[in-house]
Design brief:
The chain is an alpha+beta fold. The chain has ten helices and 20 strands. The structure holds zinc ion. Zinc ion binds next to helix 4. The site of zinc ion has 6 residues, from helix 4.
């Protein structure tokens, strides 16, 4: 294994990886930019065709959202890339990334800039087009080793991770099923390469409140004020938060003219449960709260949404995978630690399927989701070597 570490440590052409990541970053792939995503998907399909398996672009699952009027509408998404290599292998691994970014085409942050000779600033470079380059090159190097035949793998690059993977979560669950382990290529939690360990979950909800309109002066007692009911909900939802769960009432839409009792409001909120238990408890408390507000304000309430990123505790099997990544790092001269993360990603969904996952295998970088987002260039080759070695160890059965 020592030999493999030495082999991989010198196996990667960082300038080729950088050129690729920069070319991908130059394509705008804000999650709603379907044209940009379509272009990116074709470019990636072409790049991943260099692997021995089959590459397919999968249609996004339909997603329904609630608009400000309280009506359900379909939200469009881009296609998701899936590459399948040796699907009949006994032991199979899942590698995932995302091609979308948080920067729409009208966002001011579109250009790349060299910060110094090892740091580039650019949209989606760290989160996570650099990570996609790491996946591709690690797999190419792995395929050139004798051990590669021992395992098969699926690669999934979705188009909607930044908005919660609503059109790809079923695909992720399907691909996770039966997998030995999974690696996700979000950038490291800290610029020094520290991995994200356990993660809380996240859920997004909308409550459509329907009351009864009336004249504010003539017959206000006949009205049922939807804004007041929504405000009451917001205050009481916030109060359901505690150390293991935070609730963020984010927006109230609706209302009417000053002389009208408003009959319509939509309240939107996000929750962050740290544990599965706190998520379940919240579900019960929410139902009781909705019943009480309905009765007290004499309004109807329609609840939409739910927890789309389940909390991600680290199972004993997942802990073994963390240890394996650390051992591989040590062999490569890369000291790797880990810490809890407040963020969420597709690693949450994979872990919820019972598959051990390390979800920050991508480049070292930072300031993601901001115009200061940066990628450390030397980490491209470094992290590709790490992944190639981890794959080799998974192929030789080290996680059992
Ligand atoms: Zn990301």
């Amino acid at each position: 294994m020592k030999q493999l570490a030495e082999h991989f440590a010198g196996a990667f052409d960082a300038s080729e990886m950088l050129t690729q990541a920069r070319a991908w970053s130059a394509i705008n792939t804000g999650t709603a930019n379907l044209e940009g995503l379509a272009q990116q998907a074709l470019v990636l399909a072409d790049a991943f065709a260099s692997l021995p398996g089959e590459v397919a672009l999968m249609e996004p699952a339909p997603v329904t959202v609630v608009d400000a009027a309280g009506d359900e509408m379909q939200k469009s998404h881009g296609r998701h890339l899936v590459a399948r290599v040796r699907p009949d292998a006994d032991r199979r691994v899942l590698l995932t990334g995302h091609m979308d970014t948080v920067f729409p085409p009208d966002h001011p942050f579109q250009q790349q800039r060299d910060v110094d000779n090892d740091t580039v600033n650019g949209p989606g470079l760290a989160d996570m087009k650099g990570g996609i380059a790491v996946i591709l090159h690690a797999l190419q190097a792995f395929e050139r080793t004798d051990g590669a035949q021992a395992i098969g793998y699926d690669v999934m690059i979705n188009s909607d991770e930044e908005t919660g993977s609503l059109s790809s979560s079923a695909l992720i669950a399907e691909l996770a099923r039966g997998k030995h382990a999974a690696l996700t290529y979000e950038p490291s939690a800290l610029p020094d390469g520290t991995l994200a360990y356990d993660r809380g979950g996240s859920g997004n909800f909308s409550i459509v409140v329907t009351g009864k309109s009336a004249h504010a002066g003539r017959n206000p007692h006949e009205g049922r004020n939807a804004i007041v009911a929504a405000a009451d909900l917001a205050v009481r939802l916030k109060a359901l938060g505690h150390g293991e769960l935070s609730v963020n009432p984010a927006r109230i839409e609706g209302g009417s003219a000053n002389n009208v009792v408003p009959d319509h409001a939509v309240l939107r909120f996000n929750i962050r449960p740290k544990t599965t238990e706190s998520a379940e408890l919240f579900g019960q408390e929410l139902n009781a709260l909705l019943d009480d507000v309905k009765t007290r304000h004499e309004v109807t309430l329609a609840l939409h949404g739910g927890i789309t990123r389940p909390p991600k505790p680290v199972s004993s099997q997942a802990h073994k995978l963390f240890n394996l990544v650390r051992e591989c790092g040590a062999e490569l001269g890369q000291p790797i630690g880990w810490q809890s993360s407040g963020g969420v990603c597709d690693g949450n969904n994979i872990a919820a399927c019972g598959v051990p996952v390390v979800d920050t295998m991508g480049v070292r970088g930072g300031a993601i989701h901001s115009p200061d987002e940066f990628m450390i260039v030397s980490s491209l080759a470094e992290r590709a070597a790490l992944s190639a070695l981890v794959l080799s160890r998974l192929a030789s059965g080290d996680l059992r």
